[in-house]
């Protein structure tokens, strides 16, 4: 007699329940091991080595970042494997080769332009993100400062990560911060923690780190004490710091330098030069330099001392400068200290004044649209005369593609040579004064243009809103100390006169007379 569906279902259920009751299949192997370990502990039958199951730092992993776990490819198989013979050796070599093939394919798919990431992957370690040791340093500083003052260290993480990216690449970038007059406690914490991370990584790779590694130049004794208080919690992590200022006797500081080789040196310019002249300390091998408050040093009239310190350092150390954005007089000293090298602008302040620091804004009046071409020629000649001895790179912005082509064709003078451009929107002006490369773009293609690479911008057709103008202003010259934005203002832009004048005033720029007339009308 054939069995019904209910009988078959009951039979399958009995088989399934019997299988589940089996001790070896009731749980996974990992859970079964945990249960067995718990039973051994409760019964008192525990192996002697079971209480020592933790990983120790090794020369390959001194900070125990891997927690004792080995990466793929760490173990190299040898011929003399015990009990394995040649068959085992061949099998292990085959497995090793099979593991290397996906890695080779992944490397082949990697884009060729990712040089920064490749430079950070030396010795098989990822250098594209801050390490755990940097977080440990930040936490140590946060826990050591007074309550209520250290909680915002991690809140400034976006600024700190940008700083870390500038300092940790193979060729470190100089940084110009225009957040305020001097560095805040949070910024100092990120700076010294970044330096700790770089020192640890270099030592991890077996590189010799010179002492001092970081030179932190401060304008006063009070600032030196503040920075020293931030660095002090790092002593338990093996990073020593010393502050040098006129508040202590020079004999005491010389004896302290003899007994300690600090990784971080905090000093005022006068005391540092005095100790260098006495050969009590050598700063020629410094790798990172911080100048905290460039405007303060200028007020104290010690700009020449900063230049002397910079000249005593051999090579090109990574330089971080904090400066007041409201005083453009510091640009000459900053340019001298940076030796004209490429920089990156950073700011924790989102205001237009801070983000457009040291960028000159010039407004030109043009009565009619037909006269714009002649006005553009006049402005370009002015820019060319101001860039004597170097090649100027100018971004010219028009309203649309038609206007961009019209500007390009109208500026083909006798001293202009059109470059081989697929769209015909760039040209070079050659003269006895200098050389200038002009790139013409319309507002629609601005999203695909790297504005930050240009130090000079010429806005032929003013944007329809001041917000768009501010976006262009804060995006230009992000890798230079100084920049220029030239704008042509027509009568049809009169409704933007009042908010534009407000932007100029907030940035400390001169408001032209014609703009005041539009503003009052």
TrEMBL record:
GO MF: ATP binding; helicase activity; hydrolase activity; nucleic acid binding
Compositionally biased tracts (Basic residues): 10-20, 37-48
Entry keywords, A to Z: ATP-binding, Helicase, Hydrolase, Nucleotide-binding
InterPro entries reported in the protein's UniProt record: DEAD/DEAH_box_helicase_dom
Descriptive protein name: DEAD/DEAH-box helicase domain-containing protein
PANTHER family: DEAD-BOX ATP-DEPENDENT RNA HELICASE 50 (PTHR47960)
Stretches the record annotates as Disordered: 1-123
Location of the DEAD/DEAH-box helicase domain: 212-320
Bias (Basic and acidic residues) ranges: 63-74, 108-123
């Amino acid at each position: 007699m054939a069995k019904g569906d209910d009988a078959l279902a009951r039979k399958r259920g009995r088989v399934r329940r019997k299988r589940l009751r089996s001790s070896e299949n009731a749980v996974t192997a990992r859970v079964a091991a945990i249960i067995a370990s718990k039973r051994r502990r409760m019964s008192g039958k525990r192996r002697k080595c079971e209480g020592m199951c933790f990983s120790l730092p090794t020369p390959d992993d001194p900070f125990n970042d891997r927690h004792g776990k080995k990466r793929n490819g760490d173990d190299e198989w040898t011929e003399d494997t015990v009990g394995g013979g040649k068959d085992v050796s061949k099998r292990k070599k085959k497995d090793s080769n099979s593991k290397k093939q996906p890695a080779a394919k992944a490397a082949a798919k990697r884009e060729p332009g990712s040089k920064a990431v490749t430079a950070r992957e030396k010795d098989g370690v990822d250098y594209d993100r801050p390490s755990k040791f940097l977080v440990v340093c930040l936490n140590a500083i946060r826990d050591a400062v007074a309550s209520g003052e250290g909680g915002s260290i991690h809140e400034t993480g976006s600024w700190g990560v940008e700083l870390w990216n500038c300092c940790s690449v193979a060729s470190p970038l100089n940084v110009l911060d225009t957040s305020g007059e001097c560095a805040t406690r949070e910024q100092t914490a990120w700076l010294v923690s970044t330096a700790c991370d770089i020192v640890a990584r270099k030592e991890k790779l077996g590189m010799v780190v010179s002492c001092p590694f970081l030179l932190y130049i401060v304008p006063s004794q009070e600032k030196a004490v503040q920075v020293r208080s931030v660095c002090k919690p790092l002593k338990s992590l093996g990073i020593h710091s010393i502050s040098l200022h006129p508040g202590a006797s020079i004999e005491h500081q010389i004896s302290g330098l003899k007994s300690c080789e600090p990784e971080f040196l905090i000093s005022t310019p006068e005391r540092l030069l005095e100790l260098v002249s006495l050969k009590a300390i050598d700063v020629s091998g410094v790798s990172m330099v911080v100048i905290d408050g460039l405007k303060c040093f200028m007020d104290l009239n010690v700009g020449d001392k900063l230049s002397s310190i910079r000249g005593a350092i051999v090579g090109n150390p990574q330089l971080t400068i904090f400066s007041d954005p409201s005083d453009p007089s510091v640009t000459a000293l900053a340019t001298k200290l940076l030796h004209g090298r490429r920089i990156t602008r950073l700011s924790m302040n989102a205001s237009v004044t801070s983000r457009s620091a040291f960028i000159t804004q010039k407004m030109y009046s043009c009565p009619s649209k037909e006269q714009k071409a002649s006005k553009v020629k006049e402005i370009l000649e002015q820019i060319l005369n101001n860039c004597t001895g170097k090649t100027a790179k100018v971004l010219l912005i028009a309203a649309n593609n038609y206007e961009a082509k019209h500007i390009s064709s109208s500026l083909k003078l006798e001293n202009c040579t059109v470059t081989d451009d697929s769209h015909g929107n760039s040209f070079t002006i050659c003269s006895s004064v200098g050389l200038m490369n002009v790139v013409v773009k319309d507002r629609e293609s601005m999203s695909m243009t790297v504005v930050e690479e240009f130090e000079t911008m010429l806005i032929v057709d003013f944007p329809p809103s001041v917000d768009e103008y501010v976006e262009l202003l804060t995006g230009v010259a992000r890798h230079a100390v100084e920049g220029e934005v030239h704008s042509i203002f027509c009568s049809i832009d009169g409704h933007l006169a009042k908010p534009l004048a407000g932007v100029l005033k907030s940035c400390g720029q001169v408001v032209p007379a014609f703009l005041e007339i539009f503003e009052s009308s």
